[in-house]
Design goal:
Layout (H helix, E strand, L loop, with lengths): L29 H9 L4 H13 L9 E4 L4 H12 L4 E6 L6 H13 L3 E5 L3 H15 L4 H7 L2 H8 L4 E4 L3 H6 L9 E2 L1 H8 L10 H6 L22 H7 L2 E4 L8 H12 L26 H10 L3 H11 L5 H11 L5 H11 L3 H10 L7 E3 L2 E5 L5 E6 L5
Parallel strand pairs: 1-2, 2-3, 4-6
Antiparallel strand pairs: 5-6, 7-8, 8-9
């Protein structure tokens, strides 16, 4: 029997969210409740606290901070904060090979506009294509390699260059779902990386040996440990010897993605997307992978019954940039869309048929959300009632 999906009464997040989410007696989700805490924070005091903290890490002969960057608006803002504090940052990028042209432009300009050293780690194209295929079939996530890369390569660099301080932007599980409060000052940890960032998997699961241990040898692509060196997290001793710690700036500054994007455009000439996305209305998010707002997000809709438009509308509602009613209309317009042009490109990239894609997608549907009626996948909607969203696919 299909369970009833609950939606937050203030934003538009469902109880099926990809992160822990609960609701209070008024039907308000924990993400909104933690966002309310932000209005009560004395940000000037937090800023003073942060400057005093950062002063402990200033050096005369090394980088002051490592910043994981994709070239997006948040990356620019993180680096902007570091430079405003008079720090010398080392920028580190994991490049997953599928940047939008605007994203590539923004990424390579960072070294120039911020006068920073910049390390870009680019795994081989063959390895990335193989990881796209494995991730899709193993987890329903062709972009898992990107989550692994950005939560591993910068930490490797910090350990090897002996730089203990790292700046991250927002903590997704705290900012979106309210997993932590604003007085917890949560930091990046290896535990968070595995359990949340990587969904319990790690690089070794993608090798032939690792897939064999999972009982999924049929997914083997010939990947060896030496092909995935960029995904191998430093040891505890390596971390402890340097004292690496990653702090989230959203704990110390008033974080607003819309305001940040506008500021980065005005101050540094940062470019949003020049062509509309098929599955969301926002033009300034996820430019580092052309499939993040497309095929990757379509899989999220297939698995969990909601997509990027829901995420973006939630953030805009909380920031008072949009009403809940307007958010619901965005969801009605975008969340279900199968991204035609984006899907065609990805299928060609990984040499896969659409029939195989559709069949694999169906194996990841959450039956607490989806039900079958007359050969169609059906789910309940936030605006009331239910709708069918395509046929059930068989393995042909």
């Amino acid at each position: 029997m299909t369970a009833t999906t609950t939606y937050c009464k203030r934003c538009v997040l469902p109880s099926s969210a990809a992160f822990p989410l609960t609701f209070d007696e008024n039907g308000i989700c924990t993400g909104c409740l933690v966002h309310d805490q932000r209005a009560k924070i004395g940000w000037e005091k937090r800023g003073t606290m942060f400057r005093e903290f950062v002063d402990e890490y200033r050096t005369d002969d090394n980088y002051d901070v490592v910043i994981p960057v994709s070239g997006g608006k948040d990356s620019y803002y993180q680096t902007h904060v570091a430079k405003e504090l008079g720090l010398k940052p080392l920028l580190v990028t994991y490049h997953g090979n599928n940047y939008l042209p605007e994203g590539e432009y923004n990424l390579h300009r960072m070294r120039e506009v911020f006068d920073c050293d910049h390390i870009i780690i680019r795994p081989s194209v063959d390895t990335l294509i193989k990881m796209n295929r494995i991730g899709f079939k193993l987890q329903g996530d062709m972009n898992w390699h990107a989550h692994c890369g950005i939560t591993t390569a910068p930490i490797q660099v910090a350990a090897r260059y002996n730089v203990p301080l790292m700046f991250w932007g927002e903590h997704g599980y705290a900012e979106q779902g309210g997993m932590y409060g604003m007085n917890d000052f949560v930091e990046f940890t290896a535990k968070y990386r595995i359990e949340h960032g990587l969904s319990g998997f790690d690089w070794h699961h993608y090798t032939d040996e690792g897939l064999g241990r999972l009982g999924r040898s049929e997914l083997s692509e010939g990947l060896r440990p030496k092909d995935l060196l960029w995904g191998q997290y430093p040891t505890d001793d390596e971390i402890d010897d340097v004292g690496v710690r990653g702090v989230y700036l959203f704990n110390y500054v008033s974080w607003d993605a819309n305001d940040h994007a506008n500021l980065m455009v005005e101050k540094y000439g940062w470019r949003p997307a020049q062509q509309p996305f098929e599955r969301t209305y926002r033009m300034f998010s996820n430019l580092d992978d052309m499939h993040e707002n497309g095929v990757h997000d379509y899989l999220k809709f297939v698995k969990l019954g909601y997509g990027r438009a829901t995420d973006h509308a939630t953030k805009d509602i909380r920031a008072n940039k949009m009403t809940r009613e307007e958010g619901v209309e965005k969801i009605r317009l975008y969340d279900h869309v199968k991204p035609r042009a984006d899907l065609d490109r990805w299928l060609d990239y990984v040499d896969m048929s659409e029939d195989e894609f559709d069949y694999v997608c169906d194996t990841f549907r959450n039956r607490r959300i989806w039900r079958i009626e007359n050969g169609q996948w059906v789910k309940d909607n936030i605006w009331g009632g239910s709708s069918s969203y395509g046929p059930v696919h068989t393995n042909t």
